[in-house]
Design a protein that fits this description.
Helix content is 11%, strand content 44%. It is mostly beta strands. The longest helix is centred in the last third of the chain and has 20 residues.
């Protein structure tokens, strides 16, 4: 269905790709650059370069163009993986897909529990469980693939363990990142009434958004290193 990119199948490292495609793994499939990614779950991967996945949300019907080569984002234990694919078969309105690699996977090495300190123009909106207000960003103090540290102006402290829904805008990214999380700490900022430093651990975040954060972290690290 898709258009095979100019890479011989013999040059694709299928064993490395297949190792990331364990049954039950949730992945994101972005059918084109203008649409939001759609959540799928891996059903199985064959010995030959073909794998099968099932759509997670029944009420989402992706728009699948024959000329498109979707991008697949896969979370792995040590790395973040993205892969351009060809759709070999689509069943029941893309509820089930048979995919084959159109190119080698790109692995972005990630470091456990690493965060970057950032004062760039990152904006956010966050809503905490039990509070009606949606808090807009005062500042983002630090950011990592596993969580975020915010400076929040609020009438009172946020309870540790409270759930949070957060949307993040990174510089240079046209699409918002979304995650749910849990408040790990809330500390009053010295000499600043009603200002709190709030740490949030991500509980659910899409593989694509997780990779976007990891790439932003790497770009920031390299930029700081070159100064």
């Amino acid at each position: 269905m898709g258009t095979t990119l100019p890479l011989e199948i013999e040059k694709i490292d299928w064993p490395a790709i297949r190792a990331t495609l364990k049954s039950g793994t949730k992945i994101d499939v972005q059918f084109n650059q203008f649409d939001a990614p759609v959540a799928y779950v891996i059903v199985m991967a064959l010995d030959i370069p073909v794998f099968f996945c099932r759509r997670v949300e029944a009420n989402v019907t992706p728009k699948l163009e024959l000329s498109e080569n979707p991008m697949v984002y896969i979370p792995t234990t040590r790395d973040l993986c993205s892969l351009r694919v060809v759709v070999k078969e689509s069943v029941l309105g893309a509820e089930y897909l048979a995919l084959t690699p159109a190119e080698n996977a790109k692995f972005l090495r990630r470091r456990r529990s690493v965060r970057i300190r950032t004062w760039e123009n990152i904006s956010y909106r966050v809503q905490f469980d039990g509070k009606s207000n949606i808090y807009k960003g005062v500042a983002v103090e630090d950011l990592g693939r596993g969580g975020i540290g915010l400076l929040v102006y609020a009438a009172g402290p946020v309870e540790q363990g409270a759930s949070a829904q957060i949307k993040i805008n990174l510089p240079g990214e046209s699409e918002q990142l979304a995650a749910s999380g849990e408040v790990t700490h809330c500390i009053a900022q010295d000499n600043m009434p009603r200002m709190y430093r709030v740490g949030i651990k991500f509980v659910t975040i899409s593989p694509r958004d997780q990779q976007t954060i990891a790439m932003y972290m790497e770009q920031t690290r390299l930029k700081d290193k070159s100064k």
